[in-house]
Amino acid sequence: MSWIADTYGQLHTGELEALACVTGKAVSEGGIHGRREATGRGLMFALSEACRSSADMAALGLSTGIEGKRLVVQGLGNVGYHAAKFCREQGGIIIALAEREGAILNPKGLNEEEVFNFRKRTGSLLGFPGATDILKSADALELECDVLVPAALENVLTVENAARIKAKIVLEGANGPTTPEADEIFRKKKMLVIPDVYANAGGVTVSYFEWLKNLSHVRLGRMDRRRQAATEMRMLQAIEKATGKKFSDAERQGFVKVTDELAIVNSGLEDTMIVAYQEIREALRQQPDAGDLRTAAFITAINKVAIVYEELGIFP
In this structure, are 247 and 300 located in the same domain? Predict the structure, then answer.
């Protein structure tokens, strides 16, 4: 993407917003920290927010939170790898990973980085130590698990295999992994499908942050970070004065952290995913006939567009 921005800049000399013509650039060329892993991180935030609802989890026979959830992830590319990584770091158990050559299963859990490095070294994830090989990759989709994450291909959950899917939650990391016919079956099975139109939006969300950064011509947080640190230091000093206790240098460093760009990006992404999920969930609560989160997401989006047209008027 960097060469596209450079070419555009050469063709539009003097245009201040040239860097904003495209996103996904290298950080040194106007890109933003956290963009590469944003889609996978967004999937984790989406799952985390969905799993916060005690009522929704009780209906599925699950506890709240990601911790302890058994996940099957299809795809060890950028999206699948990071989704597995961030969910595992939140306490999720990656019991199976699937790629084009097959899949591997370990009920005790897999480390996506170890599997990735093994596949890079050997050319296949099959034969990974401590795991059971599944020669047909699609069979991994039908494993018993709490969360299925199709993060590779479209149309992998179809009318042919939907009835055999044992997951209670489908977290759509790929674009269009579920066909309409499979969606109908999942609805009847009362599964929770977290739709792609929302779940894998982390990448474009952070691309938007990159665009804002390019338009402002300032690194995110640059003008605010020192003020924040000064405010936190004054707070510590007030606590010391009130209690008569002095903080150690290590304690001060732990309390007073200068926020960097990555922290701002991740915070903004988390907030975006949380707010969006709650809007969709509220739309489903108000219109239960919608039936699922996918339909509720479309209702939410269409309503926003309709409100804009209604309030602004249509011109000409």
Answer: no
